[in-house]
Hints:
The complex is a heterodimer of chains A (163) and B (568). Chain A is α+β, with helices and mostly antiparallel strands. Chain A has four helices and nine strands, in the order βαββαββαββαββ. In chain A, strands 5, 6, 7, 8 and 9 form a five-stranded antiparallel β-sheet that branches. In chain A, strands 2-3-1-4 form a four-stranded antiparallel β-sheet, covered by helices on one side. Chain A starts with a strand and ends in an 8-residue tail after the last strand. By secondary structure, chain B is α/β, with parallel strands linked by helices. Chain B is 38% helix and 16% strand. Chain B contains 22 helices and 20 strands. Chain B has a six-stranded parallel β-sheet, sandwiched between helices. In chain B, helix 4 links the parallel strand 4 and strand 5. The longest helix of chain B has 15 residues. At the A-B interface, helix 1 and helix 2 of A face loops of B.
Amino acid sequence: xxxxxxxxxxxxxxxxxxxAGLFSARGYNIESLTVAxxxxxxxxxxxxxxxGSDEVIEQINKQLNKLVDxxxxxxxxxxxxxxxxxxxxxxxxxxxxxxxxxxxxxxxxGRIIDVSGTSYTIELTGSGSKLDNFLKAIDxxxxxxxxxxxxxxxxxxxxxxxx
Amino acid sequence: MQLTGAEITIKCxxxxxxxxxxxxxxxxxxxIYDALFQQDxxxxxxxxxxxxxxxxxxxxxxxxxxxxVALVTSGPGLTNAVTGIATAYMDSxxxxxxxxxxxxxxxxxxxxxxxxxxxxxRPCVKHNFLVKDVKDLAxxxxxxxxxxxxxxxxxxxxDIPKDVSNQKTEFNYPETVSIRxxxxxxxxxxxxxxxxxxxxxxxxxxxxxAGGGVILSDAAQPLYDLVKLLGFPVTNTLMGLGGHPATxxxxxxxxxxxxxxxxxxxxxxxDVLLAVGARFDDRVIGNVGxxxxxxxxxxxxxxxxxxxSKRVKVDVPIxxxxxxxxxxxxxxxxxxxxxxxxVALQAWWKQIDTWRSRKSLTYKNSDEVIxxxxxxxxxxxxTRGEAFVTSDVGQHQMWAAQYYKFDKPRQWINSGxxxxxxxxxxxxxxxxxxxxxxxxxxxxxxxSIQMNIQELSTCKQYNIPVKIIALNNRYLGMVRQWQEFxxxxxxxHSYMDALPDFVKLAQAYGHVGILVEKxxxxxxxxxxxxxxxDELVFLDFRTDSTENVYPMVPGGKGLSEVILAxxx
Lengths: 163, 568
């Protein structure tokens, strides 16, 4: 099953490689991993999307907790949570396609953030499946490049991951 | 007071009460060696290879419960140390390894003797640090010792660039340290301890399975009290030998791949299993599916939550220091008025005695050729079971584990998790230095001993009178055994040709060597060796080259799918 795991860790060199190394050494899968410092810059917050049986996910949580640099771990998929991913996408936009891209971007509540004579760059935020659906809805041949951040997640309401 | 990084490093070791540092100098640690030279509180032992430095620190730690310390230079010094670090990591041994690093301004430039020490050791340390600023050095070393010893122990590496060891700063050694992201649990959950007590009291076929965690947390006494209070059978893992006296009747002996018939079958057939500081590894329970095919309730006490329900699903998990939890469990058991089910227990012991009557450790002795088991039995007799015994890895390790009856914790020192050949001799050095008046025997083979034989030179330099019990069968015996059982007797590169004359070799290093070829000479040779209290004696026993270790649960098989010696 797909799990989205959030963790707080020391913002120190090597902390990321400890997490990444743990996943590769123990054969766990990483679908995506995002990390950046928090409002307290001594800490980083990471979101990992992974797949595994309940036993594997339990081990992942325990092994992450065991890392000395890891402050707290929360499996967001254990309860209500919100996840968002940002995609930037450059498409060939000429002739009729220009209007069509504008229309579909509006439907998906995205924004066109850069325009050239032949291309648009579109910004789209949402769940991973929303981004997938957007890609399905457009003509694949017109995609020049895409870049996705991977999911970031946060618990709903009182589900808080803090020091 | 302003001190250099090197002086701070040595001061920190003094503050931690470090008695011995095992190491090898080199360019990146010259300042540290200079500071070491100018004091006499911390003694340094110059090994002949960095792997041995780490194993010696490891043996020192295993036999004392103190943190072992090793000091190596950058590059090859560090890479040579990695096998030792991984060995300590797999067996959860508290250790601090200090490595030199190229100057900070050179890092990343492929400088002479540069390796990414933190990167290379990351998967085999509890934690590691690169100290980039001398102001962080003292606190980092404090953290290193704290991390090594607390929670589930393990090796911690501190990598110190050469310029950092030469820069000056104010020295303050903190009394204590706290790490916000690290807070190991010690006390077990009271509710789970109550559940465990009730399960144990209701058990019909109970079993206590005790591992290395009992040794590491000094929990042998409460474990003994528990086993005696309940009258339950107990088994020790390879790492747990000595955690419960081997000579106690309730001890069924070691379990696992080469465990006794009764220990393995009781483990398989029990209805309530109390696992204490053990981790259900593949060499202990064999095939997980086969093990799980028998329904049983499992209580698991361990300091490391990640060890619980890793390979085997557990019913009552108790995270905490084994000693604390056992003491609490005893209190609860005393408070409950109920006694264990005496009738069921009697039937269970009857069953166990039937298994025991197979005498699975019986071997056929010989007047012609020395049987390795016989050597260990004589070793046990002559040392009155009181020696510290270190071992290397292979058949001799299993025979030592099976035939030397360890009654006390920390007496048996071996590389259980990583299975590192070359561990025995340097580990014995660490043990002997920690216990100058104790009898220390290193049980080894002609294969393993050659992996760190250069340490005979270290033993000479520091007058370390360990006794080397080499079971020399001219084969990499355990490999040969597997090839006999599972590879159609094709002994691919498992023989040892062109062996050195170990007697002359021992003499060349300035020690005593004795060749023993006849069974009738075994006892006399051992007596002579142990009578030479102040000398290292290398005993080269020419043993039966075809002997196998029995019982054996083949890899991937279940505990009851055991191969016994032919005539059993």
